[in-house]
Design a protein that fits this description.
Elements (H helix, E strand, L loop, with lengths): L2 E4 L4 H12 L4 E5 L2 H9 L3 E4 L9 H4 L4 E4 L11 H18 L4 E5 L17 H14 L3 E7 L1 E3 L7 E5 L8 E3 H13 L6 E8 L5 H7 L6
Parallel strand pairs: 1-2, 1-4, 2-3, 4-5, 5-6, 6-10, 7-9
Antiparallel strand pairs: 8-10
Bound molecules: NADP nicotinamide-adenine-dinucleotide phosphate.
Amino acid sequence: MQTLVVGAGGETGRRIIEQLHARGIPTCGMVRSAEAIADLKAQSIRAVTGDVLKPDSLTGPLTGVDVVFCATGARPFKGGSPQEIDYQGTLNLVDQAKAAGVEHFILVSSICVSRLFHPLNLFGGVLYWKREAEKYLQKSGLMYTIVRPGGLTNDPPAEPGILIRGADTLFDGRIDRADVARVCVEAMLDPTARNKILEIINNPSNAPILDQFVQVPVVAG
Ligand SMILES: NC(=O)c1ccc[n+]([C@@H]2O[C@H](COP(=O)([O-])OP(=O)(O)OC[C@H]3O[C@@H](n4cnc5c(N)ncnc54)[C@H](OP(=O)(O)O)[C@@H]3O)[C@@H](O)[C@H]2O)c1
């Protein structure tokens, strides 16, 4: 199984690719800068350049790939609006993944994407555009898992666990990026996570994450 992590130079993408690599799952990181290429290569992780806003640049990175992890996101003041990166960029990646014969597309999105009047939508409609991209993926015909984390932190893994629920059920809470990465990797390995939306935050009780996938209802597109 060959995997590609798009946004592998970002905070969450980096953790996804490091976890894949640590488990011995063949992977490659798609990044934009020479510095990010060098960072991954220093860890003996394959890296390629590509830009989700340039569809032609995605053909090479997607060749022979079975599973795509998309952890891109617009960053304030670093070029690209939510409409461009979180929406059009993801649409480009979905289209190119489908054309390349990818089997499973795992998208890092966000809780609250269905709440139009959420304060975060004041920042370029970021939640709105993420939800529109989710809908496009859900209708694409690709097998998908949409992982919607709460507010991201770089804290040590949550003790004692992760709360996982279906779409539009969690509206508050935070989660460590390493835990988000863990759920993404488990979602690839666990058939019960296919074609599901998983909302995740730190869990006050210790529920094993694989059992949780089974309880999450399938959400229509
Ligand atoms: N911050 C939060 O509390 C929060 C909460 C819920 C969900 N989320 C979402 O979770 C995801 C991961 O967040 P994060 O903070 O870990 O991400 P991040 O560190 O901001 O990384 C975003 C990545 O997207 C890449 N990217 C941007 N434009 C691109 C393009 N045109 N082509 C290819 N790659 C591109 C960036 O590449 P470069 O390194 O080259 O710039 C970067 O690696 C994002 O979608 C974010 O919106 C965030």
